[in-house]
UniProtKB/TrEMBL annotation:
Keywords: Membrane, Transmembrane, Transmembrane helix
GO cellular component, as recorded: membrane
UniProt keyword Transmembrane helix, yes or no: yes
Full-length numbering of the shown residues: 408 to 689 of 689
Name the UniProt record assigns to this protein: EAL domain-containing protein
The keyword tRNA processing is annotated on this UniProt entry: no
Single annotated GO MF: catalytic activity
Highest taxon of the lineage: Bacteria
Organism: Venatoribacter cucullus
GO biological process entries: signal transduction
Upper classification of the organism: Bacteria, Pseudomonadati, Pseudomonadota, Gammaproteobacteria, Oceanospirillales
Domain EAL span(s) in chain numbering: 24-279
Amino acid sequence: HAKSLGRSAYSLYTDNMQQQTQDKLNLFNDLHQAIEEEAFYLVFQPQLNSRGEASGAEVLCRWNNNGVPVAPDVFIAAAEETNLIIPLGRWILRQSCRHLQHWRQQGCLPASFRQLAVNISPIQFRDPQFESLINELLEEYSLEPQWLELEITENTFLGNNDEARNKIERLSQLGIRFALDDFGTGYSSLSYLQQLPLHKLKIDRSFITDIDKTDQPVPIIESIIQLGHNLGLDVIAEGVETEQQRDYLLAHQCYEFQGYWFSKPLNDEAFCRYLAELQSCP
Ligand code: C2E
Ligand code: MG
Ligand code: MG
Ligand code: MG
């Protein structure tokens, strides 16, 4: 049974079709139950500015299925396939707002802290109740919209998706911030960058990995940063793992960073401790 087999139960990449189907069904079942039982938790990865202060954080969802961690790429994809991403995404947004309110009341956020970034899957964004949920949560947790940054990918507004575009417009008017996640990995033309009220480009980790020890230039990174600046957008690099990568990015006018070099994603308590340590030893 899937529960006792743990991670090996989701051998989604085996050649055996029957096994694959069974594994997938097990995953869907477990996921469905996990949503009922709220068996998920959130971790928070700090984002830092060029002065080494915390500028924000990204919320990342975790699931230990009976003690066995399931990779977010796996369970988020499964949740999208079954539309379970809608209740799961709603829960993630609510918990994110709850944590944010709590941190503000506790005084654990430094003055430099500007936004909590939440990943929004295209299906969740398409939900007709998405905007009312956002409004409800802002009200319930007394948050100004500026505190919330929604991380979307190109898939969210691909094609002739006027509905998504209008939704971005309206939420942006309200004061919600939008970051374009995994930037540089999509396939669409860049014209949307001029049309949509985005605030931030998030350079995909795959490009950051290309900054190696020989200090060879990485033209794509330099171009993305310049493109962002030319459009008046903030630019953040994700997956910064070495000091050298950070120095390279800084030298090319990227002023915001997220990655293991600074911190792995942390649970609530460890996150507040990290913020306190940052402030005490600048
Ligand atoms: P993403 O939004 O691009 O998130 C960044 C991923 O990079 C996270 O993986 C994070 O833990 C990882 N990461 C951060 N810094 C480093 C680093 O320095 N080195 C390396 N190697 N990795 C780093 P994670 O948590 O496994 O999430 C993977 C993807 O799953 C996310 O990509 C996002 O697409 C999705 N995801 C995670 N949480 C949520 C969520 O709450 N909602 C939705 N819709 N999607 C989520
Ligand atoms: Mg993200
Ligand atoms: Mg990303
Ligand atoms: Mg990614």
